[in-house]
Design goal:
- By secondary structure, this protein is of the alpha/beta class.
- The protein has one domain (4-283): Rossmann fold (3-Layer(aba) Sandwich).
- It contains nine helices and nine strands.
- Strands 1-2-4-3-5-6-7-8-9 form a nine-stranded mixed β-sheet.
- It is globular.
């Protein structure tokens, strides 16, 4: 796991461009956070379920614009804060080491990156209290979290993997190559109580094996749960850096969230392995 530190540190130039055809997000400063916002077209009827996205270590709130834009076009209001470790435009932050090494998951606890939990909680509270966002068409009864890498750690913690982090307002969670090894050691994956989708890649050697292995993160998670593995995908597949897997990522993420936040059927075609997908596991 020592390689994971190198794999997930992103230089400020890596995300200096947006996904092809991406619509620039709105910029919002709220609860002391810089937040990127994507909302559905104004002609989209409500209600709009709300998604909060948590970026990876040394990533930033615009690292995965392809997915944020797709969510907004599908009728979701998306809010993505910059966490303290965001480094897309901050060289000083890029030089910061993780507060506990990723290769030492046994040293992690509910105190590790608790600032990220606070960011999400304070953001949700502030948005709900804001007259521009706390009223229809924004639907705060249907709140989902999506996170990449350390952001995956963050959203899993908020769904109950760290019991002291659990937010009962969260209705569904998507972990995109989520750093979740600490939860195998000391967490409560068997008591999340919300639907979870994990996504991994066959070349994502620092994280995916711990999610997919027998007795791993997926196995320890209580249903309903989903695991999707992208054939040949590495850790950056969920960012704007590489478009190869974007369509599959959008298809599965939207189908999962549509099912649990909008009540739509999960497409039967996505329950089968097809080109570009090496594994599909579902337990409902």
């Amino acid at each position: 796991m020592g390689a994971i530190t190198v794999v997930i540190i992103l230089s400020r130039t890596l995300f200096s461009f947006a996904a092809e055809g991406a619509v620039p997000p709105q910029k919002l400063t709220i609860a002391g956070l810089d937040v990127a916002v994507w909302t559905p077209p104004k002609t989209t009827p409500g209600p709009w379920p709300v998604i909060v996205f948590s970026h990876g270590f040394h990533g930033c709130n615009t690292q995965s614009t392809f997915l944020m834009q797709a969510l907004a076009e599908d009728g979701y209001a998306v809010f993505a804060p910059d966490h303290r470790d965001a480094a897309c435009g901050n060289l000083r932050a890029l030089l910061q080491k993780p507060v506990v090494p990723f290769a030492q998951p046994e040293g992690w606890s509910g105190a590790t990156y608790a600032d990220r939990r606070q960011d999400i909680e304070q953001l949700i509270d502030a948005l709900k209290a804001d007259p521009a966002y706390g009223v229809p068409p924004f639907d705060w009864d249907e709140l989902g979290l999506v996170g990449h890498s350390l952001g995956g750690y963050t959203v899993l913690g908020l769904s109950g993997a760290w019991p002291t982090w659990k937010d009962p307002r969260v209705k569904a969670v998507v972990g995109l190559s989520p750093y979740s090894t600490p939860y195998l050691q000391r967490g409560k994956l068997d008591d999340l109580g919300v639907p979870v989708m994990y996504q991994g890649g066959t070349l994502d050697s620092g994280i995916t094996p711990f999610v997919a292995k027998t007795g791993g993160v997926y196995d320890q998670t209580r249903p309903p749960k989903y695991y999707i593995e992208l054939d040949g995908a590495g850790h950056m597949a969920w960012t704007d850096l590489r478009s190869t897997y974007h369509q599959a990522i959008m298809d599965y993420t939207l189908a999962f969230l549509d099912h649990y936040l909008k009540g739509k059927p999960f497409p039967p075609a996505l329950t089968e392995v097809h080109p570009g997908i090496s594994a599909v596991r579902i337990a409902q």
